[in-house]
């Protein structure tokens, strides 16, 4: 998502995901407006856009300023990824100020009017890191110097001018502490992200926080991408108009701390809607419930890391008023919204209303929620509905019912739910359920589970709500009769935590998952020992949560002589060493 209308004296625009590679098939338009009687000066602080030989062999800038035009290189147009700048708010050829691709450093473009249009287009092939553009209002004119050359044109309507501008930043005499930016007829000093310019206009000081009212933008930890300083307490307040929400995407995050607590360095997002308060050491995307948030960054006096980079955009919540015109469900998306329907219904052709549809679903998500048709209202009569759950091979599925209300019968002959341990109703049945009692949790023995609901033509009730998940991987290893299973880990890299509560591997002697048969429970990056079962079966279980991801493990197994006793291994506690020095 990119583009928008920016009104102000100065500011910044960036390609989507900057400084990461921009997205394919982007078409972004920024309209920048400064007060009347002023012009807009845009300076490219960073520019890296795909170019192709024969189309944009080098950097290409085509500038049109009334009756003066300048072409820094006379090659064909940039036809793949490009940035175009127009004088005014309309992308007309006669208004083109600049067209760029490839790599450009510290180029400036000046408008004639108080409005410019910046357009970014990318195709579906190669992506680069994009661009960072600063803009500022002012009154500008070309300065005639000894290095200004006029070239007469044959056309009386137009003349051409080639300006060779002195780059004051090329020498070491500019005096800028961090960054020097060349401009037409001069230069200016700038500071890296996380620093601000001192009043002398040349040296920089560490800073953080502030009030942000732009439509979209970025904020960073001090010194980013270098390590942040100790003992910082920064607050960014991001404000949007009434009816908008704020979406914050952390594109980089490396802060001291454990995910179970944020006792050291952390980011805290305060939502003034009062609905949610989150503090993180590992955030990804946050969507506000109000039009104003505060992002706090706190560091202590010990370990420093590279910190964070966050991109934000302000989005109108179209679902806030009358569900956006949707009959059942409204889902807000960035820049738009969509209507959805309850289980058992499908979206009508108008995209807003719902109509009764089939109730046969195949679900591949690792977890989710299902409900009977029309839940929590009464389910329809005379229906047969199926849900087929499929997850990654090696995983099992867990089905948990939260609410359950079907027609009562001691044999469940009328309205009922039946669960099968496989991919269809021919698989072994795991249970038939009816009435008001919530069924127990149901686990599959493989990566598939099949649920069917049958209703007759008489009584109808609320139905059910259930959740499914597949967070664990299981490998059942079976050797030939009279032999045991030997398991050896060749590589091991899981999330490290003192009690191995988050991501961990468990090894069981046999297929029984009780503590009595558990041979080991491991996490971190140390190789577990070699295991040998006492019988012909062994069970290996991997459990992962939804936060940190690591490489995992590689294990080898083979048939061997069975063990005579079952080893019991617990997570290795931290090693504490005491050293006594004797001074002679």
TrEMBL record:
GO terms for molecular function: calcium ion binding; metalloendopeptidase activity; serine-type endopeptidase activity. Pfam families: CUB, FXa_inhibition. Signal peptide: none annotated. Gene3D superfamilies: Laminin (2.10.25.10), Spermadhesin, CUB domain (2.60.120.290). SMART domains: CUB (SM00042), EGF (SM00181), EGF_CA (SM00179). GO terms for cellular component: extracellular space. Residues 165-205, 315-355 form the EGF-like domain. Residues 2-138, 208-315, 359-471, 472-560 form the CUB domain. PROSITE patterns: ASX_HYDROXYL, CUB, EGF_2, EGF_3, EGF_CA. GO terms for biological process: proteolysis. This is Tolloid.
């Amino acid at each position: 998502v990119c583009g928008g209308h920016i009104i102000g004296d100065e500011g910044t625009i960036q390609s989507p995901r900057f400084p990461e590679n921009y997205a394919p098939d982007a078409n972004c338009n920024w309209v920048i407006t400064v007060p009347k009687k002023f012009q807009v000066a845009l300076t490219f602080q960073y520019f890296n856009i795909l170019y192709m030989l024969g189309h944009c062999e080098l950097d290409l800038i085509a500038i049109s300023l009334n009756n003066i035009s300048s072409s820094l290189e006379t090659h064909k147009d940039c036809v793949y990824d490009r940035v175009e700048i127009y004088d005014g708010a309309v992308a007309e050829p006669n208004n083109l100020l600049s067209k760029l691709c490839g790599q450009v450093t510290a180029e400036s473009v000046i408008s004639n009017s108080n409005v410019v249009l910046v357009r970014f287009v990318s195709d579906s092939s190669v992506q680069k890191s994009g661009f960072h553009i600063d803009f500022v209002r002012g009154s500008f004119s070309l300065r005639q110097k000894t290095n200004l050359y006029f070239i007469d044109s044959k056309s009386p309507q137009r003349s051409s001018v080639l300006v060779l501008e002195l780059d004051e930043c090329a020498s070491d005499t500019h005096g800028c502490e961090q960054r020097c930016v060349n401009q037409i007829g001069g230069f200016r000093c700038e500071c890296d992200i996380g620093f601000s310019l001192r009043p002398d206009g040349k040296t920089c000081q560490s800073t953080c926080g502030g009030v942000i009212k732009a439509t979209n933008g970025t904020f960073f930890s001090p010194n980013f991408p270098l390590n942040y300083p100790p003992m910082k307490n920064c607050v960014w307040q991001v404000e949007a108009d009434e009816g908008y929400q704020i979406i914050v995407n952390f594109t980089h995050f490396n802060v001291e701390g454990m995910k179970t607590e944020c006792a050291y360095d952390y980011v805290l997002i305060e939502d003034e809607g009062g609905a949610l308060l989150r503090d993180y050491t590992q955030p990804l995307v946050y969507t506000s419930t109000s039009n104003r948030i505060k992002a706090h960054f706190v560091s202590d006096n010990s370990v420093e890391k590279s910190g964070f980079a966050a991109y934000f955009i302000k989005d109108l919540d179209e679902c806030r008023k009358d569900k956006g015109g949707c009959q059942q469900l409204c889902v807000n998306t960035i820049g738009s919204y969509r209507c959805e329907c309850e289980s058992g219904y499908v979206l009508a052709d108008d995209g807003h209303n719902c109509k009764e549809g089939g109730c046969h679903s195949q679900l591949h998500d690792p977890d989710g929620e299902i409900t009977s048709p029309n839940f929590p209202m009464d389910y329809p009569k005379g229906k047969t509905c199926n849900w087929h759950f499929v997850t990654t091979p090696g995983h099992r599925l867990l089905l948990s019912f939260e609410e359950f209300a079907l027609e009562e019968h001691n044999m469940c002959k009328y309205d009922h739910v039946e669960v099968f341990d496989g991919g269809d109703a021919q698989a072994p049945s795991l249970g038939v359920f009816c009435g008001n009692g919530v069924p127990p949790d149901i686990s599959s023995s493989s990566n598939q589970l099949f649920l069917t609901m049958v209703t007759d033509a008489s009584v109808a009730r609320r139905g059910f709500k259930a959740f499914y998940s597949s967070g664990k991987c299981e490998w059942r290893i079976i050797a030939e009769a009279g032999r045991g299973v030997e398991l050896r880990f060749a590589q091991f890299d899981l999330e490290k935590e003192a009690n191995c509560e988050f991501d961990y591997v468990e090894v069981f002697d046999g297929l029984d998952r009780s503590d009595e048969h558990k041979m080991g429970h491991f996490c971190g990056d140390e190789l577990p020992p070699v295991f040998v079962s006492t019988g012909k079966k062994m069970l290996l279980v991997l459990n992962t949560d939804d936060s940190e991801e690591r490489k995992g493990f590689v294990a080898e197994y083979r048939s061997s002589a069975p063990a005579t006793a079952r080893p019991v291994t617990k997570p290795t506690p931290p090693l504490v060493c005491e050293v006594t020095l004797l001074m002679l």
